[in-house]
Amino acid sequence: MKTWFIVVGILVVLAVVITIRVRYELKTLQRTDYILHTNKLPEGKQIKLAVISDLHNRHYGEKNGQLIEMIKEAKPDYILAAGDLITASNRKEIEPVMDLLVELSQVAPVYYSPGNHEKRIAEEKADFPGLEEKFRKGLEQTNAVYLENKSVALDDNTILAGLDIDYQFYDKLKRPSYELLDFQKNLQEADQKKFNILMAHSPKFFSTYAEAGYDLVFSGHYHGGAVRLPGIGGVISPQFVPFPKYSKGKYVLEKTTMLVSSGCGSHKVNLRLFNKPEVMVVEINGHCI
After folding, report:
1. CA 88 to CA 134: how far, in whole Å?
2. With 70 as the cut, is the pLDDT of residue 7 above it?
3. Which residue has the higher pLDDT, 266 or 37?
């Protein structure tokens, strides 16, 4: 009997410690830095990007002051938002996200591509009456450039594209594949003479992005796998996929690098353990072979 009391006591203490740690991590935003090199940019040229994803209407400080300040301190040339800044919900307010985009556009040019939540409110309008219209109208009041299967030239050497896949490719049960032919219906393949950056919310289709010839891909979607374990990585995605292959960090496939953000917020699985929300700051340096 005494042994059982000890075991139960240990489990209770463990549960309390984990609960405290989870609550701490959910509110603790961190900055993650990456340095990359490419021979597609001139020697000495540098581009610095601040990348956010999966905010899901979360606030960091009053009017997101903490998030804005962290990005300001990075002094980026461009700010990229790789989807799911909003949550598809009639109970969530759009305005704070639009206010954030206005503030960030005063720091650097902002480019925003859709995630599954932006896509859902567009494809399932009956479930979210008026929400997409409100979202679009709000975007018009910001200086953010919304890239839905569009690309822009950041400079003479650099192309940025935003991928907007059909909502069916986010399906939790069927889990369809997304091949190069599907990609070509959304975007052109990369111009190999340029340095090509792709914002693609789901990292699941990394091999397709690489096949399309993109040099650098920014994704999110899996929220880092919620709980991360040493040597294993993310445990489960918000779509209830166990041990997702690309959950957080840097991945390389042939000539393509993909950086997957753990995101800034959370949705249905409101859980983070050893997996703080993050802002990615990426420095890209040009060099000669």
Report:
1. 12
2. no
3. 37
